[in-house]
Each structure stands twice: as structure tokens, then as C-alpha cells.
Amino acid sequence: MTNHLLLSIVLFGVMWLYLKIAARYYIIDQPTDRTSHKTPTIRGGGIIFPVAVIFWFLLYGFQYPYIITGMVLISFISFLDDVKGVRASIRIIVHLLAVALLFYEIGLLGFHWYWILFALILTIGSINAINFMDGINGITAFYSFITLGSFSLLNNAYNLLLPFFSMGLPAGWEPFFPGGLVGTLMASLLVFGFFNARRKAVVFAGDVGSIGMAFLMSWLLINLMVKSKEFYWILFFAVYGIDTSYTIFIRILRKENIFKPHRLHLYQLLANENGWPQLIVAALYAGIQLVLNLFVIYLVFTGKMNLIIFITILAVLLAVYIFARYLATRKLVVSEA
After folding, report:
1. How far is 207 from 190, CA to CA, in rounded Å?
2. pTM of the full predicted structure?
3. Which of 11, 28, 127, 156 could form a disulfide with 214 if both were Cys (CB 3.0 to 4.6 A apart)?
């Protein structure tokens, strides 16, 4: 606890220094008709996430050097993209290299090709989904905090969850990530949230933050699935995944470029077109994911989770999402009539 408090103070200083540098070199996100903010705001504040992990790497015995190298690469190219833009082909190459380093470190390259393909689709999909969803104040900080907290709960299951399950934990359960990592990331999220989770944000995460955090959370998710031999944990990303997938589907139907900025995610419709406070929308997304995560943990740990229940959960979430989206767009149609 003391170490994380000291680290939080150091990270606060790093963020303050970054704000000064970003203002000096005009690393600014200008508002457009496609963005959710109305005033110029510093971007790239999510650089605090990879910086925090580098501190962890140095302080906790240089663990997982290939993964940390991959994180540095993907964060660096994303920061360059925040500052001056980088060609898509270069970004894709660096992303694939970073993911390859991740797979090599956790031994995934020794699996059958279809598991590698599944992990690749999951990782690239998660990185893009989390990046696409970083569009309003507080959403990256809140959602990441809930996701990391859920991972920490499982990693410390013998201390935190065993008292609630009389039948014990699943056979062979073991920690799936090293100590100190999630605590370090949570410290960086608290610092970032202090500057971002406001009615008027001081700084945005930028691609360096959303993509860097997505890469790290994908690592933890894949490690959890490999160690537990369960794929149901993918539901930890379900709220973001459904919003991203359905929005892409809508944009494809409209024959739009899915990589162009837009305001069609449900969270954007709620915050921008329906006038909901951005922090309320961000908290709603994080809260729904928290309830879902706890439910998934209960089902897996009691042996009640199976493929039918997994599909049913996804179907219910999708139905609720479509209905919520219908209400959000219906209000717009009525107001324009």
C-alpha cells in the first residue's frame, strides 16, 4: 500500500510534467463536429499507463521483458500518432509485432493454429474496441478500473473469493499475473482520472492511453483464459464489445468508412445527442460491466457456466443494447420532427 501511494505521487508528478510539455508543444485535441468536447484539450495523457508499467518492470525484477517491449512499441507508435499522425500500414506492423511478442512470452505460439488465430482476433479486436470507446470523459478510467479490479479479484481468489464459495475454487486455480502489476496500473488510472474524469477534462488519454491499456488488459485476459482453460472470461469485455461490434455493423450497412471519426456509439448518442452528463454515461457502462463480471465469476466458480448460458448472456445483453439504442435514436427522431 505504501509503495503504491509513493508511486501515485510520482505518477502525479509525471502527469503534471506531461501537461506542461504537451501545452508547450501544442499536443492538443481540437473539437470538431465529430467529437464530444467543445474546447481544445490536451491529448496523450494516457502515456501515464505505459510509464507506470515501466516503473513496475524496473521495481519488480524485470518480469515479462518481451511483453513490456511490446507494450513500449505499441504505446510509442500510438503516441506518435497522437502527436503528428502515423501511416496506417506502419501502425498495423507495430501492432502485430507487439502482439507477437505478447504471444511468444506467454507461450501461446505453441498452441494449435486455431487458438492462435482466436487469440489474435481477440487481441486486435479488443485493442480497437477500447480505442473506439475512448470518446467521453471518464469512460476509459472507469471501465479500465472495473476490468482491472475484476482481474485482481480473480488473481487473489484464495484470499478474497474463497470465503464466499463453500465448495471451494475451481480445481487447479492459480494466480495468472504477477504481484504489483494491477496495483500499479490502478494507481496510474487514479492519477489519470483526477485530470480526466471531470465535467470539463484537463487531458484526454489519446491513442497512447487507450491502445496501451487495451494491450495490457488483453494480456491479462488471455493469460486468464490460458491458465483457467475457460474462454467465458471474454465476457469481461462484453459491454465494450457489443457497442463496438453493433456500431461497426450499422456503419457498414451505411457504407461508411469504419475508421473515420463518428458519433454513433450508444455512449455518444446518450452523451452528445441526448444530453446525458458524460460521467454518468461512463459510470453506467462501468457499472453494467461490474455487475456482469461478478455474475460471470459466480457462474464459473459454482460450475454453472456453460456454452448455452454464455450465449444466452450475450443474447440478453445484445437485446438490451439494441432496445437502449432504439430509445436513444427514437428520442432524436421525435425531437427533430
Report:
1. 18
2. 0.93
3. 127
